[in-house]
């Protein structure tokens, strides 16, 4: 059964938003507080120009740099960001990255309760004005007149790969810049959005800092980590900073790091982590809490389904997947998943119905065809099983179980020569699987190939003596 499962995969410890080192309570600002301006986006120069303000696309990746070289190269572009109250006192610290001349990106939650703002680097301070906010992505842009710091070049997250080395640079608690080294440990897609997971440590108070690749290019804005969650540090993709061009300030920013959507995301990630660790009961709790906050969180329903199935509660898994499919009935993979669960509770009719929907939506979805093949085998509709198995083999020619099922279906139809041919291919692909050899031996009996049965018997004696004896008994050779 394990070979049939294609189920997705990683939030309840306390959420720690790493970007804000609170200096005390600060009053919320008025509708458009001092220090906040509604301005038009500047006329950016071409990124190919000598002073490219935003995206310095590099056609060929330069050699990897050492941590010291990375720090020396990009640290002049990483700032301390201070949020001030009406008395001019610092109420929160964070970090920021210079992404254009006089433009600093930080997290929105770093500045959300500030009345005015300031950036600092190397002991020197500059007043800053909030000009753009992306409420959906927890980003904000500050304009800093007189800031001569160099800007960084960015790299699109779609070009990242799990396992790449990265460096997080920020100013925890408003102190000196620090650097931590790690890897891209996950690229978590949520609908059209993406969050970068990294093992590079993100210190409390360093939200809004930069996550850089081995060439010193900005790949993300460090945002939050999960307390007690090993390696659960997250960054927002660098390309999201481009979206700020169309989001000038129109109203005071609203709290979102404690919003249901953000909390649900973090709980989902904890569920994924616990699920990976085999802690399925804890994962179920995390997924359920995420769904209480965001009932339409499709992938949390999928995670919940998977966790239920792992603890042998397929009925509950089916119910969770029904919610997922209600939200997204066009998801071919989820139709295949629910088909698997229907098969586990013995509803072969519903298994094949779900699988047919899966392959109707995506004719090249091998998972859907595998479930359909299994459903037809369970219903003893062997001609249909042959057709489905042949499609699986076309899509996944090295999938031994498809060859095995094809052989069994041919044998049930009385075409023993084709059955032998398919099962020979199965043992060729998986020569140490005794179950496949036993099936082949029994098919040799049906095809009248007595000498071949003994060859299989000798092979089974080495792999699994008990199955070798079973073959002798079932082939009437004992």
Describe the structure.
With 478 residues, this protein is of the alpha+beta class. The chain has 2 domains: 18-39 and 62-240, Thrombin, subunit H (Beta Barrel), CATH 2.40.10; 260-474, Tetratricopeptide repeat domain (Serine Threonine Protein Phosphatase 5, Tetratricopeptide repeat, Alpha Horseshoe), CATH 1.25.40. It contains 15 helices and 14 strands. The chain has helices at 67-74, 108-111, 260-276, 280-293, 298-310, 314-327, 332-344, 348-361, 366-378, 382-395, 400-412, 416-429, 434-446, 450-463, 465-474, and strands at residues 15-16, 21-22, 78-84, 90-100, 103-107, 116-121, 124-134, 139-143, 165-170, 178-190, 193-198, 210-213, 218-226, 233-237. The strands form 2 sheets. It has a 6-stranded antiparallel β-barrel. The protein has a 6-stranded antiparallel barrel with strand order 3-4-5-8-7-6. α3 runs parallel beside α5, α7 runs antiparallel to α8 and α7 (332-344) runs parallel beside α9 (366-378). The radius of gyration is 29 Å and the shape is elongated. The chain starts with 14 loop residues before the first strand and ends with a helix. The model is unreliable at 1-59 and 250-257 (pLDDT under 50).
Q: Which structural class should the secondary elements be placed in?
A: alpha+beta
Radius of gyration: 29 Å
Q: Mind telling me the CATH class of the largest domain?
A: Mainly Alpha
Shape call: elongated
CATH architecture of the largest domain: Alpha Horseshoe
Quaternary assembly? single chain
Mean pLDDT level: 81
CATH homologous superfamily annotation of the largest domain = Tetratricopeptide repeat domain
Helicity level, as a percent range?
25-40%
For this structure, the CATH topology of the largest domain is Serine Threonine Protein Phosphatase 5, Tetratricopeptide repeat
Distance between the termini: 31 Å
């Amino acid at each position: 059964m394990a070979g049939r499962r294609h189920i997705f995969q990683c939030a309840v410890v306390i959420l720690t938003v790493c970007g804000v080192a609170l200096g005390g309570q600060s009053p919320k600002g008025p509708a458009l507080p001092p220090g906040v301006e509604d301005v038009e986006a500047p006329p950016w120069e071409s990124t190919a120009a000598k002073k490219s303000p935003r995206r310095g696309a590099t056609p060929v990746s330069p050699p990897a740099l050492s941590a010291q070289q990375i720090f020396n190269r990009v640290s002049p572009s990483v700032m301390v960001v201070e949020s001030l109250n009406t008395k001019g006192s610092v109420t929160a610290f964070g970090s920021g990255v210079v992404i254009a001349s006089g433009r600093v990106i930080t997290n929105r939650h770093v500045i959300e309760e500030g009345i005015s703002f300031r950036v600092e680097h190397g002991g020197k301070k500059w007043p800053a004005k909030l000009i753009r906010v992306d409420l959906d992505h927890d980003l904000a842009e500050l304009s800093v007149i007189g800031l001569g710091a160099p800007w960084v070049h960015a790299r699109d997250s779609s070009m990242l790969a799990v396992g790449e080395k990265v460096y997080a640079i920020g100013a925890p608690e408003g102190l000196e810049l620090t650097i931590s080294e790690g890897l891209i440990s996950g690229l978590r897609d949520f609908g059209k959005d993406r969050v970068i997971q990294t093992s590079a440590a993100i210190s409390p108070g360093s939200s809004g800092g930069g996550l850089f690749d081995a060439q010193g290019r900005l790949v993300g804005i460090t945002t939050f980590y999960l307390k007690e969650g090993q390696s659960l540090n997250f960054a927002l993709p660098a390309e999201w900073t481009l979206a700020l061009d169309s989001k000038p300030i129109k109203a005071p920013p609203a709290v979102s790091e404690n919003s249901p959507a953000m909390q649900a995301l973090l709980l989902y990630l904890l569920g994924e982590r616990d699920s990976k660790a085999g802690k399925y009961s804890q994962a179920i709790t995390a997924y359920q809490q995420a769904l209480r906050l965001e009932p339409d969180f499709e992938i949390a329903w999928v995670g919940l389904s998977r966790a239920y199935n792992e603890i042998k509660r397929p009925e509950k898994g089916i119910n969770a997947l029904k919610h997922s499919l209600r939200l997204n009935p066009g998801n071919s993979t989820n139709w295949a998943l629910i088909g698997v669960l229907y098969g586990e509770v013995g509803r072969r009719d519903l298994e094949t119905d779900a699988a047919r929907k899966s392959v109707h939506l995506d004719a090249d979805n091998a998972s859907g065809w595998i479930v359909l093949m299994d459903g037809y085998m369970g219903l003893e509709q062997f001609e249909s099983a042959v057709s489905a198995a042949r499609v699986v083999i076309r899509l996944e020619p090295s999938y031994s179980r498809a060859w095995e099922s094809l052989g069994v279906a041919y044998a049930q139809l009385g075409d023993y020569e084709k059955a032998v041919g398919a099962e020979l291919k199965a043992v060729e692909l998986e020569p140490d699987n005794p179950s496949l050899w036993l099936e082949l031996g029994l098919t040799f009996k049906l095809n009248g190939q007595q000498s071949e049965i003994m060859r299989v018997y000798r092979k089974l004696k080495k792999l699994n003596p008990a199955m070798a004896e079973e073959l002798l008994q079932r082939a009437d050779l004992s």
